[in-house]
Design a protein that fits this description.
It is built from 8 helices and 16 strands. The chain is α/β, with parallel strands linked by helices. The protein has one domain: Spore Coat Polysaccharide Biosynthesis Protein SpsA, Chain A. The strands form 5 sheets. Strands 1, 4, 7, 8, 10, 13, 14 and 15 form an 8-stranded mixed beta sheet that branches. Strands 2-3 form a two-stranded antiparallel ribbon. It has a two-stranded antiparallel sheet with strand order 5-6. The longest helix is centred in the N-terminal third of the chain and has 14 residues. It is globular.
Length: 259
């Protein structure tokens, strides 16, 4: 097991997915009957990253309860009602260590990361959001990060097109692709690798990671991009959730790299 910790931000409100997030935090919205947070953790686990530190905020108790109940809900149980004794007879549980840290309801992304500093320790760590899945090769990502010696690597992705992509010859459509990753433009797809010095770039709770810290890291020549051209999808809206659910149900979910 790699001793590198994986920090996951799971504290946002997810207001654009209000159909689901009025009762649960966004990372607990399900794909195939499992929270998207579980899918992300399974991805990291497939590359032997099994030490997780999860930053909680909005409805964080929902995630705590899920993790505490995980073993019993995914095992065969023998319950002695007279004594209250519970025996797990067959466990289907992964070998994970999960630290669940309250980082405040109103804390912004940078502030949440800063609050994880005592739990991450003085070492390289992984970082991502609790609402996006990808088939990025995490071993290659880490090797790339170590090769350049800078403080932060972000995974640069081509965003999925919202609509079908058309190519023309005159007025005739000669190529149609339904919702591909777009051919031009790169965006921040999370799946970061960070050195502990990044905490020095974050002032406090009201710092947004994507603003001053990343801007300053870039200005200092300390921000590198790992270009990922394959699958990536953030679950921002109900439309995104439906798309991910379709991929899962048809057995063609690109992010499912585990057995």
């Amino acid at each position: 097991m790699s001793d590198i910790k994986v920090a996951i931000l799971a504290g946002g409100v997810g207001s654009r997915l209000a159909e689901e997030t009025t009762i649960k935090p966004k990372p607990m919205v399900e794909i195939g009957g499992r929270p998207i947070l579980w899918h992300i953790m399974m991805h990291y686990s497939a590359y032997n990253f099994k030490n997780f530190v999860i930053a909680l905020g909005y409805k964080g108790e929902y995630i705590k309860k899920y993790m505490v109940d995980y073993c019993s809900l995914n095992s065969n149980l023998k319950v002695r009602l007279k004594t209250g004794e519970v025996q797990m007879e067959k466990s289907y549980t992964p070998d994970w260590t999960v630290e669940l840290i309250d980082t405040g309801i109103a804390t912004l992304t940078g502030g949440r990361i800063k609050r994880l500093q005592p739990y991450v320790g003085n070492q390289t760590f992984m970082l991502t959001w609790g609402d996006g899945v990808s088939d990025v090769n995490l071993r290659d990502l880490l090797a790339f990060h170590r090769s350049h010696g800078k403080l932060v690597t972000l995974t640069a992705v081509r965003p999925p097109a919202r609509f079908g992509h058309l190519e023309f010859e005159g007025d005739q459509i000669n190529h149609f692709t339904e919702k591909p990753q777009t051919a031009e433009g790169w965006i921040n797809g999370a799946f970061f690798v960070c050195e502990p010095e990044v905490f020095d770039y974050i002032d406090g709770d009201m710092t947004q990671w994507e603003r001053e810290p990343l801007e300053q890291l870039a200005a200092d020549g300390q921000l590198m991009a790992y270009r990922h051209t394959s699958f990536w999808q953030c679950m921002d809206t109900l439309r995104d959730k439906v798309r991910l659910e379709e991929l899962w149900q048809t057995g063609s979910a690109p992010w499912k790299i585990w057995e």
